[in-house]
Specification:
This protein is of the alpha/beta class. 31% of the residues lie in helices and 21% in strands. The strands form three sheets. The protein has a nine-stranded mixed beta sheet with strand order 4-1-5-6-13-12-11-8-9, with helices on both faces. Strand 12 and strand 13 form a beta hairpin. Helix 3 crosses helix 4. The longest helix is centred in the last third of the chain and has 36 residues.
């Protein structure tokens, strides 16, 4: 009998979808994120619809890892003490209300945590960092957004190199100190949160990946999108494999604790 797959919680986006002036609220999870977890991390993606911050502790006991996905929406700047610069850009305050608490809870409970794009930004903000809302408007910074109207193949194609810290696990996964990554984001890190260590940078100096210092479990985030065609990219595959390994380790440890507790209960009854 096969062992059950570790379970990974992927919070959903809250969006209004429809046409002709008629919309309804939907909870949305991109297929590529769930598929990368299932196929490359060898874990079972799960969603808890309408989960609230008060439920996080109990729900984390049901899973072995958390992955914070990318999204068209931005983290609301009020969470890092700023005003909205461009009201045309999408926001998702309902997701913010869950994920910023979720980040801190994962670290407190040693739950493996992987952040991608918006998830990368959420971890930084949750731990006290801040964001540039429109990186392309800053002097000396490149435009990290995808080109509108291009095919997804073009938008998710390698866009620029990143320089990787030699003593990081990121360098091991990349197989070297540089790697080509895609780029589909407008926001970016301004102030790196205390407790985070930048492990990859874009040519313009923007932080592209970090790890949580002294984390009791896997706690890594990247600004690019490794979930795109993951099996075709050895770097992206290695990142998801490491996350999956951490989730399996937590799952096995939980199973052992449950077994030990059950044996103690039987012994006590005897």
């Amino acid at each position: 009998m096969k062992k059950p797959l570790p379970m990974v919680w992927l919070p959903a986006d809250h969006r209004l979808l429809g046409s002709d002036g008629r919309t309804m609220p939907f909870l949305v999870l991109g297929d590529k994120y769930a598929r990368a977890v299932k196929e490359s991390a060898q874990a079972q993606p799960v969603v808890f619809p309408l989960a609230e911050a008060e439920q996080i502790a109990a729900l984390l006991d049901c899973v072995d890892g958390v992955m914070l996905t990318g999204s068209p929406s931005n983290v609301h700047p009020s969470h890092f003490g700023a005003e909205v610069e461009n009201t045309a850009l999408p926001l998702d305050p309902q997701r913010d209300a869950l994920t910023l608490h979720l980040v801190r809870a994962c670290l407190e409970k040693a739950v493996p945590l992987l952040g991608i794009c918006r998830g990368f930004q959420e971890i930084n903000v949750a731990l006290g960092g801040s964001l540039h809302q429109q990186v392309q408007n800053l002097p000396g910074m490149q435009d990290h957004r995808e080109t509108a109207g291009q095919s997804y193949e073009m938008q998710y194609a390698p866009s620029h190199p990143v320089t990787i810290a030699a003593d990081s696990r990121m360098a091991q996964w990349a197989g070297g100190l540089t790697a080509q990554v895609n780029s589909l984001h407008g926001q970016g890190i301004n102030r790196l949160a205390p407790g985070l260590r930048a492990v990859a940078h874009a040519p313009d100096g923007l932080v592209e990946a970090f790890e949580v210092r002294d984390a009791a479990s896997f706690a890594v985030a990247v600004q690019w999108h490794p979930e795109w065609r993951t099996p075709q990219n050895t770097f992206y595959s290695a990142l998801f494999a490491a996350f999956g390994d951490a989730c399996r380790a937590r799952s096995e440890a939980s199973a052992k604790r449950a077994q030990t507790s059950s044996l103690h209960a039987v012994t006590s009854e005897e």
